[in-house]
Amino acid sequence: MEKYISHIVLMGYRDISTCAKIWKVDSLSREQEVLPGTLLGVIEEYFPGSNVYEIDGKIYSSIIGIPRLDMVRRIVWVEPRTRVQMPSQGSMVYAYVINARDESAFLRIIGSDPRSPIRQSLVGMLHISQARLDPGERSLLDIIRPGDLVYAKILSKSNPYILTLRAPKAGVVLSLCLKCAAFMRYRSGKLSCPRCGFEESRRVSQLYISI
Ligand SMILES: [Zn+2]
Questions:
Q1: If you average pLDDT over each of 33-42, 59-68, 80-89, 164-173, which comes out highest?
Q2: 56 φ, ψ (degrees, to nearest 5)
Q3: Given this model, what pLDDT does residue 15 score?
Q4: What does the alpha-carbon distance between residue 53 and residue 61 come to, in Å, rounded to a whole number?
């Protein structure tokens, strides 16, 4: 035990009380997170997999994550805690409009579930050619506005992503009043502010959120 603690101190961890706990790889019934430097096992028992390192025959985690054990191949490895679910081409995502002009807009993609947004900064770009359905829509600002939450389809493969509103259910799903910042309500084909009565025009999605 003393040896492990001295090792952790060498790794630069000052809080020994939290880092000195030795993780038992045999008890894999729980999803318990480990810290860098946590002892996972010895090479007589397991082969080191990804995100671990070995010193003097002992296998330690090199990241914060969940330890995994391949019982068939006897490999121990650590799954990163913050595994990023990157949106795939063709998938539908929610995104906030950060900046919009007549012809183009920048959005921040928050992922496929607005209740658990992606932490990473994923940028979406929308051009009016991918938003206009009616020739009367001369400006992108007739369709979306900064601050809106929109539902859009991903057209490209990597960040920054090209978005389109030419997809089923695509459009604004939540909008703020430009005058008083209250959440707009969508009733009978109209977007109106319940607080000040201001009415606006948008490409409203059938997924519009009622608050
Ligand atoms: Zn208002």
A1: 164-173
A2: 50, 40
A3: 35
A4: 6
Place of tokens 């007739």: 142
**Residues 153-196: tens digit of each pLDDT:** 999 998 899 999 999 999 999 999 989 989 999 988 889 999 99
Of 62, 98, 94, 55, which is closest to residue 77 (Cα–Cα)?
Answer: 62
| Ligand 1 centroid – CA 57 distance (Å) | 66
pLDDT tens string 17-31? 333 344 444 444 457
How many angstroms separate the alpha carbon of residue 120 from the centre of ligand 1?
32
Residue 155 CB partners (closer than 8 Å, separation 6+) = 89, 90, 130, 161, 162, 163, 164
Eight-state DSSP code of residue 56: T
Instruction: Determine the distance separating the centroid of ligand 1 and the alpha carbon of 193, expressed in angstroms.
Output: 5
Alpha carbon of 66 to ligand 1 centroid (Å): 47
For the chain, which domains are there?
A: 2-80 (2.40.50.100), 92-200 (2.40.50.140)
Q: How far is the CA of 199 from the centre of ligand 1 (A)?
A: 8
State the distance from the centre of ligand 1 to the C-alpha of 181, rounded, in angstroms.
6
